[in-house]
């Protein structure tokens, strides 16, 4: 049987995040599959894909930081804020002059990047999946309609210059940021700060929370697990039966549901209270063993999160020395009780 959990896919270029979800659906035969955060089609790197009940953890990952390696091209601005869009402004001569007179140099680039650290306001790209009034922004853009795009506060933990090529009018930087940060918007804003204009020319997501590109699986390796060929209707050509992957082969790439929930504390629920807990009942402090406390119980999180996440615990039961994940519980300071927010297993 296919395990409920998460596959850390190294998404290649020319695939949408939804393409990756559909491939996992076809390999598993499980409809409930989703990813933890969109990666643009021309970007590559870490894309965690959740299978079955694991798809319910997405809201718990709001505190996860993401890490990117980005290449930025100076002197060109486009409608999509990357090199794959339509050019709306070109300032090649002006950029070369800024480089020649020293206004754009290794020192000024580093100094500019430093100004983006911390909490910043950012306007998302008009070509993005962010919804406004129930519609995605790119739907307005493609229809030639205008809509107000409100700036959002995002957190940049770190940003640094990795490689500089002024002859080619481009450089590469590394950034660690909060969920909801648009790197394309950052490239636009960096270009404005350097007074030359800029757009993104390459992007790799190297980490998303606990998931890293070093421990990801290539999409082609997953597709190669398919046993045989899909069966098609001879008249319509439509697929009527998908070829699946063998569970024992696919499960090698699936990590448990609780793997990314690193910000939460940890409790072991007493054996005689497990069923009660999983059925939605409260358990008190004497009916659990606290193994660790939530990271942000005392520490202030860098971005706003639900107050419950500051008192969130991964709950387990002990089965002959093996810890079985039950779900996520919130602790109520007033009643001094733990209650399941979501249950993923019953031991």
Core attributes:
single chain; 347 residues; alpha+beta; Pseudouridine synthase; Archaeosine Trna-guanine Transglycosylase, Chain: A, domain 4; 3 domains; 6-stranded mixed β-sheet; 8 helices; 23 strands; globular; EC 5.4.99.25; tRNA processing
Task: Summarize the biggest pleated sheet.
Answer: 11 strands, mixed
Domains (count):
3
Tell me the strand percentage band: 35-45%
**What is the name of the CATH architecture of the largest domain?**
2-Layer Sandwich
Rg, nearest Å: 23 Å
CATH class descriptor name of the largest domain: Alpha Beta
Give the name of the CATH superfamily of the largest domain.
Pseudouridine synthase
Overall form: globular
Keywords: Isomerase, tRNA processing
Protein name: tRNA pseudouridine synthase B
Organism: Aminipila luticellarii
GO molecular function: RNA binding; tRNA pseudouridine(55) synthase activity
């Amino acid at each position: 049987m296919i395990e409920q959990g998460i596959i850390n896919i190294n998404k290649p270029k020319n695939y949408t995040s939804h393409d990756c979800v559909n491939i996992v659906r076809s390999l598993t035969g499980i409809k409930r599959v989703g990813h933890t955060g969109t990666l643009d089609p021309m970007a590559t790197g870490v894309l965690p894909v959740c299978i079955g009940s694991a798809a319910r953890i997405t809201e718990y990952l709001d505190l996860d930081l993401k890490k990117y390696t980005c290449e930025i091209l100076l002197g060109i601005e486009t409608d999509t804020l990357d090199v794959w869009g339509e050019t709306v402004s070109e300032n090649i001569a002006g950029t070369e002059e800024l480089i020649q007179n020293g206004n754009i140099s290794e020192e000024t680039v580093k100094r500019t990047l430093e100004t983006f650290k911390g909490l910043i306001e950012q306007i998302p790209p008009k070509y993005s999946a962010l919804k406004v009034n129930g519609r995605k922004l790119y739907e307005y853009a493609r229809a030639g309609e205008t809509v107000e795009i409100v700036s959002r506060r995002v957190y940049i933990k770190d940003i640094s210059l990795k490689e500089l090529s002024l002859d080619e009018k481009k450089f590469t930087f590394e950034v660690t940021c909060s969920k909801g940060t648009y790197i394309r918007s950052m490239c636009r804003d960096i270009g404005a700060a350097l007074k030359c204009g800029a757009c993104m020319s390459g992007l790799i997501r190297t980490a998303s929370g606990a998931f890293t590109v070093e421990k990801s699986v290539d999409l082609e390796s997953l597709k190669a697990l398919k046993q045989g060929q899909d069966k098609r209707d001879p008249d319509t050509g439509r697929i009527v039966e998908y070829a699946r992957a063998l569970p024992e082969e696919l499960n090698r790439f699936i990590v448990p549901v609780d793997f990314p929930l690193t910000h939460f504390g940890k409790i072991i629920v007493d054996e005689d209270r497990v069923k009660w807990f999983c059925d939605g009942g409260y358990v008190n402090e004497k009916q659990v063993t606290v193994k660790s406390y939530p990271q942000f119980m005392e520490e202030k999180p860098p971005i706003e999160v639900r107050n419950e996440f500051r008192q969130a615990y991964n709950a387990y039961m002990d089965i002959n020395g093996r810890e079985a994940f039950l779900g996520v519980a919130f602790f109520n300071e007033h009643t001094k009780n733990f209650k399941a927010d979501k249950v993923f297993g019953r031991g």
